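Aim 2 progress update. The chain analyzed this quarter is reproduced below.
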Amino acid sequence: MLERLRRFVGNALSCRALWGAVVAVWILPQLGGCASVPAWMVNDKPSWRTQYALAHVAPAVVRINVVMRDFQNGIPENFRAIGSGVIIDKQGRVLTNFHVAGRARRIEIILPDQERVRATLIGSDHWTDLALVQMDMAQIHARHLHFKWATLGNSSRVQLGQPVMAIGTPYGLSRTVTSGIISDTDRFFNATTIDGYETGWFNNWLQTDAAINPGNSGGPLINLRGHVIGINTRGDPSANNLGFAIPINVARRVIPSLLKYRKVARSYVGLELEPMLGLSRFYHLPPQTGVLIRSVDYDSPASLGGVHALDVLLSVNGHPTNCRFPEQISAVRRYISDQPIGSKVTLRVERMSDGSKIQRKTLYVFTQRLESVVAPRHQIKPWGIVVRNLTNAYLRQQQMKMIRGVLVTSVQSGSIADAAGMEDGDIIRQVGNRRIVDSVQLKVLADRMAKTKKPYAVVVKRGRSERTLVFSPGSGS
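Predicted structure tokens:
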């Protein structure tokens, strides 16, 4: 029986091949070439691989509507924005970008069938520009809504030239698909920020010529197997179809921390690194050995541990830190950041002294929690200002000693603070006889002072000096 079936299939395939040959050799020439081929003979449908991939991922891609708050001239303003996301599990969790949903005051998910669902932020990580959002499952069950979820692939298997598709909501145009190839598997960006927040420090990017426009952010980059291999994040507005996606393996590492802690805790030692390309001979080192320490952050663990700029970092806890090319920097940064916070880390460095003498040193540093230069902003209504808490990262950037206080980011024209002479960039150190620790304390004191009719003093640090401003109740508009 099996033999008969095998012969039947073989004969059918042979007949099909023979018919194709007849068409190519006899019929087409009779019709005058391809230009005269009947329309019914032309297959204009997407390939079955494209159809397969879209069928498995497109039903899991959502539009994300958010409401965010910004401050203009000390006054809060809400604005709407859109982005994309992809549902990743049956619990209704949506993976997207930090710059899409990480600072949203309100989140709404629009499913592929146009149904709208409320959502809340589970957690976010601006260092990788990823965020995890939870759809309101009670609302979904009550309204008998249905959704599908996508399969996460393995971005380490992505190859140069591999066909990919980007799905999302560019410029609000939902359910948009663009196609292209992977044009680089390991793109490096140095000192990258999005909306002021540091991002991409611990990962490289997938580069694609599939069009990624505003609104595509947070949507999936998929392969023809129907697997998500990246999260679309950014495009180059000055180029034609030059887009970048976060490798999905980066998201795989981040998601468990977002689910458990709502954020990702990382270690910091205060090193700025540079690849060794062209420097190995100068330091008398073999190729692919070490990474150059370009600078050491002011008052950082590395500075306190005796690390110098222009040292060559050979290893961290015995783990080689070989970086000849920029693409290798992110892996070293990530290895350092993965060390337990507050732990003792052993750095093996090579130092050139007296112009030619080489010394190898073993140095010990104690890691601190990694902080951003940027902190959330808060409005102090009675004074007409917007402030944010000081972070150690901001103070190091300004090369200032570790002090307590609150940074002024915006002053409303005609407010009591404006009348007193307060400016953007001032650090509020003291109100009356109370030293300021954070914005919560400042808000309480400002509310209390607003009820008094007597002038009071506010001490601010401006540049390298401190000055006293006199706040007079009733002086503001």
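The first strand starts at residue 61 and ends at 72. The domain at 151-261 is CATH 2.40.10.10 (Thrombin, subunit H). These observations will guide the mutagenesis experiments scheduled for the next reporting period.
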